[in-house]
Amino acid sequence: MTKSEIIDIVAHGTGLTKVETSAVVDGMLATINYALATGDSVTLRGFGSFRVVERKGRQGLNPKTGKAMNVPPHKSPVFRPSKDLRKAVDAGVKNPEFQVG
Fold first, then answer.
1. What is the reported pTM?
2. Buried b or exposed e, range 49-88, using 16+ CB within 10 angstroms
3. What is the DSSP letter of 22?
4. Alpha-carbon dihedral of residues 3, 93, 82, 50, nearest 10 degrees?
5. Who contacts 7 (Cβ-Cβ below 8 Å, separation ≥6)?
6. What is the pLDDT of residues 33-92, one digit of tens each?
């Protein structure tokens, strides 16, 4: 599912216009990006949480040449799904509670 498909579904379900819904979705994504970039975590109850973890530097291989290279330490965003989301994914479309539209 793409961002534009999400906007279409949310607009249809809420009665907002696609322009209004797009602004809400963009604002939400920008807020999550900003929070993670400043070191905060984001928790959305029933969905999951986003946080930033520090990755250690390590030796890796260049996929083109096969030569060893040094991968420097860096920060990575991590998503951890909630129990509700894991349950919904496991149930799939068998459970009408989790269907959209």
1. 0.78
2. ebbeeeeeeeeeeeeeeeeeeeeeeeeeeeeeeeeebeeb
3. H
4. -20
5. 18, 21, 22, 25
6. 999 999 999 999 999 999 999 999 999 999 999 999 999 999 999 999 999 999 989 888
Q: Residue 39 contacts by C-beta under 8 Å, 6 or more apart in sequence? A: 52
Residue appearing with tokens 């129990």: 83
DSSP letter, residue 95: S
Q: Are 59 and 69 in contact (CB under 8 A)?
A: yes
Alpha helix (H) ranges present in the chain?
3-14, 18-37, 83-91
Amino acid at 71: V
| Chain centre distance of CA 20 | 21
